[in-house]
């Protein structure tokens, strides 16, 4: 993700505010997991002020936006689905 932590929290907060009662927020993201990702992360940070984040960091940002991560669903690709509900 090429957004700063602050902008991610703002985006997630807007999603939380827009979700219907009983609804969910689904984020498709590539969590940081492999050593080679560290170079990509550094590159994204240098260019955009954001970067790849660990699963734990995704959970922290969602919590800061008033969301509770229900589950993380891996896919056959490098991306995972982060399913969250308003906290």
What does this structure look like?
The protein is of the alpha+beta class and 87 residues long. The chain has helices spanning 5-18, 35-48, 55-64; strands at residues 25-29, 67-74, 80-86. Strand 2 and strand 3 (80-86) form a beta hairpin. The longest helix is centred in the N-terminal third of the chain and has 14 residues, at 5-18.
Summarize the topology.
Layout: H1 5-18, E1 25-29, H2 35-48, H3 55-64, E2 67-74, E3 80-86
Antiparallel strand pairs: 1-3, 2-3
The pLDDT mean sits at 84
Q: Kindly, what is the distance between the CA atoms of the first and last residues, rounded to a whole number of angstroms?
A: 23 Å
User: Measured on Cα atoms, how large is the radius of gyration?
Assistant: 13 Å
Q: Biggest sheet, open or closed, and with what strands and sense?
A: 3 strands, antiparallel
Structural class: alpha+beta
Q: Percent helix among the residues?
A: 40-55%
Shape assignment? globular
**Could you tell me the number of beta strands?**
3
Strand content: 15-25%
**Succession of helices and strands:** HEHHEE
Strand adjacency order, main sheet: 1-3-2
Tally of helical segments? 3
What oligomeric state is this?
single chain
Which stretches are poorly predicted, pLDDT < 50 over at least 5 residues? none
Short description:
This protein is of the alpha+beta class. It is built from 3 helices and 3 strands, in the order αβααββ.
């Amino acid at each position: 993700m090429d957004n700063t932590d602050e902008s991610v929290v703002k985006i997630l907060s807007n999603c939380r505010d827009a979700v219907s009662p009983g609804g969910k927020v689904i984020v498709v993201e590539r969590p940081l997991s492999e050593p080679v990702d560290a170079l990509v992360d550094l590159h994204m940070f240098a260019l955009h002020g954001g970067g790849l984040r660990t699963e734990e960091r995704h959970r922290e940002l969602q919590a800061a936006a008033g969301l509770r991560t229900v589950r993380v669903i891996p896919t056959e690709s490098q991306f995972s689905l982060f399913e969250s509900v308003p906290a």
